[in-house]
Amino acid sequence: MIQVRGLHKVYKKVKAVDDLSFTLHDGEILGLVGPNGAGKTTTLKCLCGVVLPTDGLILIDDYNLSTDEQAAKQLLAFVPETPNPYEILTVYEHMKFISLLYSVEDPDPKIHELLTVFELYEKRDDLVNSLSKGMKQKLTICCALVHDPKMLLLDEPLIGIDPRGARTLKDMLIQRVAQGKSVIISSHMLYLVEELCHSILIIDHGRKIAEGSLEEIRKTALASSNASLEEVFLKITEEQE
Confidence class of residue 4 from pLDDT cuts 50, 70 and 90? Predict the structure, then answer.
């Protein structure tokens, strides 16, 4: 599981994340949502060690991210909103490089499987800089999955991906949580969060304003029992203004 306690991140005088605490259990998908500038991406970057928190505790299983960084990161993978692969490598070389970083034994079968599933196999010998944005996003997802991480962090994962690729990713996420693995999805596509996520964390100005299942958040917002996540989100965030 991932446990976050009292997470703070301050950039100069701006509080990007302000005393945020939550838990992600094994076999669950957590939806992280909020307005633009709410602190979602900063939170994810803190969780994967890309950004150092100003204060707070992050536990990946039993590993403290600040003191057991390598062991904690071995369990994680992060897919950023904007893919930034090594463009001078071919698709296959990029996958091979990432698998070596994570000491994946005999990675070729897994690389073949992922490139085939995400319809990149025919591009395996192409340079990454020749790929479309959507293909680069698919490659980034393949690289995140090549070492079979226990926890997967996704920041707007479907932007630029074609419908078939989006369906493939959603099916794969469902399969992973059925195996006891966990996922955090940050997205403005609230229908995606409503479709996939077991629990939802709404933040604004870096602070938690609602957490729980959609049913629990409806009660927090005093919304009707059949209100969509979009309706609940708009109601809750309007009340914060």
Answer: very high
d(CA 17, CA 10): 7
Return the structure tokens found at 89: 């490598």
Answer for the pair 203, 39: CB distance below 8 angstroms, yes or no.
yes
Maximum Cα–Cα distance for the chain, whole Å? Answer: 54
pLDDT in the model for residue 108:
96
Pairing of strands 55-60, 63-64: antiparallel
pLDDT digits (tens, 9 = 90+) for 123-155: 999 999 999 999 999 999 999 999 999 999 999
Angle, alpha carbons 202-204-205 (nearest 5°): 150
Write the DSSP string, the chain. Answer: -EEEEEEEEEETTEEEEEEEEEEE-TT-EEEEE-STTSSHHHHHHHHTTSS--SEEEEEETTEETTTSHHHHHHTEEEE-SS----TTSBHHHHHHHHHHHTT-SS-HHHHHHHHHHTT-GGGTTSBGGGS-HHHHHHHHHHHHHTT--SEEEEESTTTT--HHHHHHHHHHHHHHHHTT-EEEEE-S-HHHHHHH-SEEEEEETTEEEEEE-HHHHHHHTT--TT--HHHHHHHHHHHH-
Cα–Cα separations (whole angstroms), residue 205 to 185, 213, 224 = 18, 21, 26
